[in-house]
Amino acid sequence: MADAKTILVIAEGEDRARELLYGAAQLGERVVFYCQDGGAINAGDVRLKAQEGVAFVEAIPALLAFAEAEKPDAILLETTQNCRLLAGELAAKLGTTPLCDAQSLSIENGKLFSERMVYGGAANRVENEPMPGAIALVAAAAYQPAEDAQAPAEQALEAVASPVKVTGIEEKVVESVNLAAAKTLVCVGRGFGAEEELKLAEDFARHVGGEIGCTRPISEGEGWMSSARYVGVSGLMLKPDVYFGLGISGQVQHMVGVNGARVVVAVNKDPKAPIFDQCDLGLVASVQEALPLLVDAL
Fold it and tell me: Per the annotation, does 16 bind a ligand?
């Protein structure tokens, strides 16, 4: 049963907006949302709609004015750089403190409670802010996506486009991957001795229908994979159905990023690797030896 009257959801992307809308529906009777790329969303009760061509940052003054006037019980935002900026401005306007990186939310005695990981995932911390006006930046995959239902009512958001005009665009090649949506995640670590060996993991991932992720040393240390695939305490926090840790020791800085996985499978040549204390299925073998055999058996 909903414990709040109105929840305001703010997001840039449709996927994250749907997750926040699902969570908001569990908390409030009425859900109002603004999503920069959410024109196809048929969920929630009211969609705030800005004029064509208004960028997210240009909508911030209007969103601040809306929140101050409407005084929603809680405001849920995704964790992009722009939404963090907006959360800070909202907090200053409403006289509150944002609840950051929330993995779950609840309402009790007129307060919004947030649970998040601290100390590299070694513990969870519960924080709260009074309503109305409580603000939470919600971690990816904290909720399942809301499905389309009845089309929401629309309310104009009085946002004004900036007089600054774009005179040219230079494309930057960036890998686009949505690991948060992956049901099966295949992560690689230092057990791979050369970049060429990652083809073994890629072949295995194709056979199990999974997406490839990695530990921090593979991304930032070796530069073999983009930061978009880095899973861990300062990277992505994911909840796949099945997680394969290949050549990964199981340090807390990485494992905290997948502690929501339903099934954990590990392959490591070191029988004393910490990951074997955290997995459901474990195979003591080198990835170079094991992966070709596993692929042949699939």
Answer: no
Which pLDDT value is given to residue 54?
84
Q: Under a CB-based contact definition with an 8 Å cutoff, are residues 189 and 91 in contact?
A: no
Same domain, 238 and 286: yes
Both 96 and 205 in one domain: the answer is: no
Q: Are residues 8 and 102 in the same domain?
A: yes
Pair (11, 137) in one structural domain: yes
Q: Is 18 annotated as a binding residue?
A: no
How far apart CA 229 and CA 260 sit, in angstroms, is 17
Q: Is the pLDDT of residue 9 over 80?
A: yes
Q: Summarize pLDDT for 119-141 with one digit per residue, the tens.
A: 767 788 999 999 999 999 998 88
Q: Quick one: how far is CA 30 from the chain centroid?
A: 24
In 3-state terms, the chain is what percent helix, strand and coil (to 5)?
Answer: 30, 30, 40
Is 234 known to sit in a ligand binding site? no
pLDDT value, residue 230: 87
Residue 81 marked in a binding site: no
Q: Is the pLDDT of residue 106 over 50?
A: yes
- 215 is known to lie in a ligand binding site: yes
The pLDDT of residue 1 is 43
Q: Is 259 annotated as a binding residue?
A: no
pLDDT tens, residue by residue, 217-248: 998 888 898 888 888 876 777 889 999 999 99
252 annotated ligand-binding residue: yes
Nearest to 20 by CA among 153, 180, 138: 138
The CATH number for 186's domain is 3.40.50.1220
Ligand-binding annotation for 44, yes or no, is no
The domain in which residue 243 lies consists of 179-297
Would you say 84 is a known binding-site residue? no
* SS3 category, 229: helix
| 256 marked as part of a ligand binding site | no
